[in-house]
């Protein structure tokens, strides 16, 4: 069966295994972050440290840059690859970088953990065939005017080389709109994920071409069920040698990760920042508790109509055991039981009031 027709359910279940080390399929979005271009060791190492601290799971950075103008910065080449390896050694982040030509594949694969095929090369069929044989995951960006069928057919070239480690990336398509660099096409990204069974991530930086739209586009992508994001982050975006307008600085990236609820607690650098995060989470928890209580009252009404008792011990024990297991090592089982026994006690009282 071709990828254009749809991959099997078994393929979908093995995503996590295929992309070991990249956290795809873990239930947490993959966040690839870093500068558009590698410019210096100081720049890429600083970026790697900052994005990792904010919760990124992989580092991006261009060593070979396909530019519209031959007079634009073309990247540092092999020196850029070496600097990406230095940044990986400093942070442990897997490296994602673009390969532009079949002659570069072995060189890039020597340094990179994920080989990126850019939008301009989506239908470079010689490159697609060869890059799949490198034995590394391949991130395939959608062409700026490619249809869904063309995008998936390009992925199939990689798959048929024997490499099932393909990640699709929606980076916006060219439309009549001129206020943004491209137009983010979430509808096709959703269809690509459904049709292929491959993980799909979104690049809001290239889709928008402007940093003020990266947050809303990121929120929309994750709300739509995408598997991750690819975001450009630079120590000093306004001085970047490429794509300055669409790169975030470190503080902006941290705020974005907080908005996405992906910022680790270790990134909070003051008591005030910690308290602000706790207050935000408490409000979220309260909202969820209010919704839970409404559902519990409705269950009470249905129990009363069916002549069932309020207390159903087997159900409560199974619920608490399941939640204690989900908490893992982050929260002790007894602590989970204490919290949920209190919640269940309040729920029972609300249901008992309906039976009175």
What does this structure look like?
The structure is a single chain. The protein is of the alpha/beta class. Helix content is 48%, strand content 9%. The chain has 14 helices and eight strands. The longest helix is centred in the last third of the chain and has 36 residues, at 271-306. It is elongated. Mean pLDDT is 91; it is low at 3-13.
Which characteristics define this entry?
single chain, 356 residues, alpha/beta, 8-stranded parallel beta barrel, disordered N terminus
Quick gist of this model?
The chain is of the alpha/beta class.
Widest sheet: strand ordering: 1-2-3-4-5-6-7-8
Shape summary: elongated
How many E strands?
Answer: 8
Strand percentage, roughly?
5-15%
Helix content: 40-55%
Low-confidence stretches: 3-13
Per-chain topology:
Elements: H1 9-13, H2 15-18, E1 30-34, H3 41-53, E2 58-60, H4 78-91, E3 95-98, H5 105-111, E4 114-117, H6 125-131, E5 138-141, H7 148-159, E6 166-170, H8 186-196, E7 200-202, H9 204-208, H10 214-223, E8 228-232, H11 250-259, H12 271-306, H13 313-327, H14 333-355
């Amino acid at each position: 069966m071709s990828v254009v027709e749809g991959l099997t359910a078994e393929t979908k279940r093995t995503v996590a295994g295929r992309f070991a080390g990249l956290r795809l399929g873990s239930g947490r979005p993959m966040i690839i972050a870093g500068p558009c271009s590698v410019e210096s060791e100081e720049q890429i190492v600083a970026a790697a440290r900052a994005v990792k601290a904010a919760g990124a799971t992989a580092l991006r950075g261009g060593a070979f840059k396909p530019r519209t103008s031959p007079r634009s910065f073309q990247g540092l080449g092999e020196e850029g690859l070496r600097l990406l390896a230095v940044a990986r050694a400093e942070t442990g982040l897997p490296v994602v970088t673009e390969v532009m030509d079949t002659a570069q594949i072995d060189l890039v694969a020597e340094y990179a953990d994920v080989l990126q095929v850019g939008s301009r090369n989506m239908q470079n069929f010689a490159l697609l065939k060869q890059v799949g044989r490198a034995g590394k995951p391949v991130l395939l960006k959608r062409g700026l005017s490619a249809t869904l069928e063309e995008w998936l057919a390009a992925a199939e070239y990689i798959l048929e080389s024997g490499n099932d480690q393909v990640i699709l990336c929606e980076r916006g398509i060219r439309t009549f709109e001129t206020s943004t660099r491209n137009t983010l096409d979430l509808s096709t990204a959703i269809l690509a994920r459904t049709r292929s069974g491959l993980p799909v991530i979104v690049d809001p930086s290239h889709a928008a071409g402007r940093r003020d739209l990266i947050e809303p586009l990121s929120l929309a992508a994750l709300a739509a069920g995408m598997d991750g994001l690819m975001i450009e982050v630079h120590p000093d975006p306004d001085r970047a040698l490429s794509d300055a307008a669409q790169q975030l600085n470190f503080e902006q990236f941290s705020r974005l990760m907080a908005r996405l609820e992906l910022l680790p607690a270790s990134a909070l650098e003051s008591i005030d920042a910690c308290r602000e995060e706790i207050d935000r989470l408490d409000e979220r928890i309260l909202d969820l508790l209010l919704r839970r209580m409404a559902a519990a009252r409705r269950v009470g009404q249905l129990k009363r109509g069916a002549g069932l008792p309020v207390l159903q011990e087997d159900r409560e024990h199974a619920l608490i055991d399941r939640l204690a297991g989900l908490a893992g090592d982050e929260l002790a089982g007894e602590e989970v039981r204490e919290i949920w026994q209190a919640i269940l006690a309040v729920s029972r009282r609300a249901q008992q009031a309906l039976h009175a």
